[in-house]
Structures are given as structure tokens and as C-alpha cells.
Amino acid sequence: MAKGSFRRGISRRSLLQQTGAAAIGISLAGGVAACGGGSGGGRVVNFYNWDTYIGPTTLDDFRTATGVPVQMSLFATNDELFARLRAGNPGFDVIVPSNEFVTRMSQAQMLQELDHAKIPNISNLLPEFQDAAFDPGRRYSMPYTWLVLGIGYRKAAMPNGMVPNSWRYLFDSPQFSQKLALLSESADLIRLCAKYLGHSVNNIPDAMLSQIEQMLIRQKPHVKQFHQDNGQDLLASGEVDIVLEYNGDIAQLMNAEGGDAFDFVVPQEGTLINSDCLCIPTGAPHVDDAHAFINYLLDGEAGKKITEEILFPTPNAAARELMPDSYKNNPVIFPPADVMAKSEYGAFEGDERARLYEEIFTRISAA
Amino acid sequence: MEQTWRQAKAAFAAVSAPPIVWLLLFFLVPLAVVWAYSFGVNSGPVTIDFTGTFANYTRALEPLYVGIFWKSLIVATLTTLLCLIVGFPVALAIAFSSPKAKAWLLLLIMLPFWTNLLIRTFALIAVLRENGYVNAILEWMWTHASGLMTLVGLQPLGDFEPLTLLYNNTAVVIGLVYVHLPFMVLPLYSALDRMDRSLMEASLDLGAGHLRTIWSVVVPLAAPGVASGVLITFIPALGAYLTPDLLGGTDSQMIANVIERQFKRANDWPFGAALSFLLMYLTFIAVAVQALVQRRSERRG
Fold first, then answer.
1. N or C: which end of chain B has fewer CB within 10 A?
2. Which residues in A284-363 belong to E strands, given as ranges?
């Protein structure tokens, strides 16, 4: 792997999230953000992306290939992305929402249909990513990466080299009391608890929701923090020994200096799969160039350069083919087929559901 | 001769128009929009119907949310008290130091404002965490004490257990005091600096001790400074969300965290708006109390 490509402690969702939280007040009031490049009618692609989620030369390479510059701005959570575009598109051409938000935003008419004829590189995608339940026929989205939640842990803290391959250690056991941290995302937490209890991550019945609430309230005294997607920091700094985190974040930690001390496992019960997707929001000023940019990102060579940098699993067969074995055969980045078979995407089940999950999380935190 | 604004209407209008327009456009209008939201209903993922319902307020007054408000009040009160206890001697020391030292000390008080709150909070994490600076110093002292005890033939101390300083309510209060201390010190300083020194000299001449003088003369004279310091510490502390998010544990949620999540994850702006306005009404009450205290102290003066 390229040296210096690991920014320890900064995940695509950590530091920026807090500044983003501070800035939301501004975006609520204004909404018309300064996307300078859009003015004057010149050709440009305004790209709204996660932090540390692109190759170091990708944008320049695209400019060299097409003559069209790319202006990238960053968001830290899907909620921030959604809030920013809620009152109307402030001028973005390409955005990167996760699967659930692809559904939500397409339902809210916030996304344009893609013209597949302008994205021939769709043929580079692995067959299982050519279509998606959250976006039937890939009408609105092209997959950029995928990721899974799992357990990151410190090997030395596990008795007799045990592998914590069950959600029990996080949700329903005092074994790592005050040495464990959970992600503070209400929906992810509740869905994974349902998975632990043997249910699908979707269509969780009400009775099970109260069972989950009780379980997490019982577990709470053992939990050190509901973290803001900085679980790899907590692990690296010795605050906790076991943490709920995304595979890419722990993979970055394991590739950094001293990373041998840590490992990552997807529990045997299966997990939540997420997929970040390239979409064109409604009202995008440069639709043709946006298609060209999406097509470019799905190119094999371009995809390889991105993947080398960000180390998340790629849905792109051509890009994966160009990657070294240390990536292709990395069990952290590509978890074993048997647990992947038990894993699911979380479906968007309506805003009411999101609010219910949020209230459950508020109750757990207040308990 | 002193002129009132009546004698220079044009100049007054020219000077005051920009701030008034600014206030109207960027503060009162958005505030009114949020106020209107609080009586609305979500009719779709991005649409809100203004129906004039009180349902959001009814929900906000459920025990769950009242409990969180109550907890936030307690944390903010505790923070303010600690700031006052720590800040008063500091302000006193600055007010009574030489003019040259005074400038430097004031600069030091304001220095933290040069850095973003987020950066300061992350710095505090580096100081307080289990292998942070506080624990490193403690461990150094522990091992040396242990070595010393073996030297004099005693049993060595056991292994050093790092203190858990982060991710609990104490950490939140420490973080809030750290962030808000300058807000307390500056108004206290300005009140103490303006004070008529001859009153203290009189008190000392008439036989009161130093402590008695501080308690019976300085503190009452500084009361307006205390009141405004308390107010501008209490209000932001009540609405803090970054500090509890980053330094708090699993039960450190404050009301601003809940509000933030309504606007983001829950995508429930009407309910978030109702919670925000309840928080603002609490702030109004605090301002009213402050005004009352001020008036009473003025009457006494």
C-alpha cells in the first residue's frame, strides 16, 4: 500500500462531522451555498463528497482527460448532506449518499434519473452491484464503495486469543465492561441488535424494539461512550478494547504503524451492509459533465487509484482486478462469504421509522 | 453640550440602519421561520405544513424531554457556579495587578478564543484520556514513589491504574468550565476594575480584615459583574452540545444534543423547533432573573 495514504484517526465521518454540526445553523438559514465554480456558465463539476474519500490525483486526472475541472466540497454525515439539499440544490452536480438515503432522496424527488447510455463503465461493476434493492434498476445511483459494520478489537485484550465474533460482546455482555464503545447512530444500533436477536435488520416488530431498548439500557453501564464514528481513535488510544466500527476505518488503523495490535471481525450473526453511491441531484447545473464524471469514477484505472487511497471495498470488478493481493485477499476489507451471506442492506422505511429509532435512542441515553 | 438622538435624526438613522436591517434579516426572520415550524407538521420528507398544532410542544413536555431539560439545567448551573468560584479570584488578581501585567493577563484569558472550540475540545481529550498527559504525569510520580519506597526497604506500590477522566459527566463539566471560564472572568474583571478603591481602603482603615473587606465590600460592589458573568456563562452552557458529544459518556446527553438530532438524523424540524423554543424561553427566564438582581442591587447602591 502506498505510504502516507493512511491518515490515522481521521475517518471520513469523524472530525468534519463536528464542524458540520456547528455549521448546520448557517445552512438552515441560507441554503444557497457558495459553490463558486458554478458561476459564469463555464464547464465544471461540483462534487459533494465525504472527507478522505477520493484518490489523490483523481480530480486532476479527470481534468486532464476531459478539460473539465472538478470542485469538491465535503460533508460528514448523510444527515448533513440531506439537510443541505433539503431546501433545494445549492448547485451540486454529483453527490455521494448511502443506500438508505438514495431511497429517501429519490422518494423526495431530490435525485435525477441517470442516463445509463452516458455511463458505459457500468459494465465494470460486479454483477451483484448492477442492480440494487434500494434503487431498482439503478435508476438514480451508481455504487462507489460498500462497507460493513463490525467489531474492531485489541488482540491483547482478548482472553486466550479469543475472537469476539458475536454481537453479544457489544450489546448483551458485561465481559468488556467500560472497555467498549458503540456507534451513536440510532438506526444502525437498533438494526444490529435485531440481527443479534435473530431478526432481519428490516421490518423489526414493535415488541422486539422494546426488547432491544431494554437490552441496551441494561448494557449501558458497561458502555464507555456512544462514539461519533471515531471508534478507531478510541481503540488506538487505549480507551476501549472493543468497538463497533466500519471495516474501512479499522483497516486504515491496522495499516498504520502499530496496527498489528488490532483486528476486525464481522460477527457470525451477520451485519449491516452500506453502499455509498454516486448520484446527480435534481437541479444540477452541469448534467452532462456530471455523467462524464461518474463514468470516469467507474473506470478501472481511476477506481484503482481511489481504492488504493481509501481502502474501502470496491464494487468495481475492473478496479479490484488491478489491486494487489494484499487488498483483494484482506479479510477485513472483504469479510468471509458466509457472514456476508447473512448480512443485509438496511432499507429506508420512512421518516416515521427514523424518528421512532431516534426517540428510542434518546430514551436509552436518558435512562 | 450633550446631544440626544432627536437632534441628529439623520445621522442616527444612517448609523443604526445597517445593524437593524442585519438583525431583522439574519436573526429575527429566520427565528420567526423556526418559530412557525414549531407549530407545523411533517407532511413529507422535505415539506412542513403549518397547521398551528401544539402537538410538538405537547411531545416536548413529556417526562422524557423534561427530564433532559432538567439535567441540562443542573449541568449548566454547576458549570456556572464552578466558573464563578474559579473566576472570581482570577478576576480579582487581574484587577489588582500592575497595568503592564494586567494587559498580559487579559491577553492570556482571551488566548483560547484564538482557537476553534472543536480543536480545544480535542486537545482536552489528549490531556485527559487514559494515556493522556494527566495520567502520564501521575504514572511518572507513581513509579518514582514506588522506586523510592523500595529504596528505603518498603513494599513497592502496585501497578499504576490510570484514572478514568473522560467519557462521563465530570468530564463534561470540566470541559464546559474550561470553555466558559473567560466568559465569566471578563465581566467580573470589568466590574472589579471600575470599583472605587477608596471604599476598600476605608474598610481596611476602619478595622475590617482582608477577607471581611472582600466579602462585605468587594463582592457586593461587583454584584452587577457577577450577574452578567453568570448570565453569559449559563446561557451557552445550557445550549452546549459539542462538549457532551465529545467528552460525555453514555448518560451525558444534554438538550442541545437532542435538538441537533431532530434536525439531522430524525429529520423532524417541527419537533426540533419546539424544543429549541422551549430552550429559548428558559433563557428568557434567566435574563429576567438577571435583570431583577441587577435592579435590586442598583436600588441598594
1. N
2. 344-345
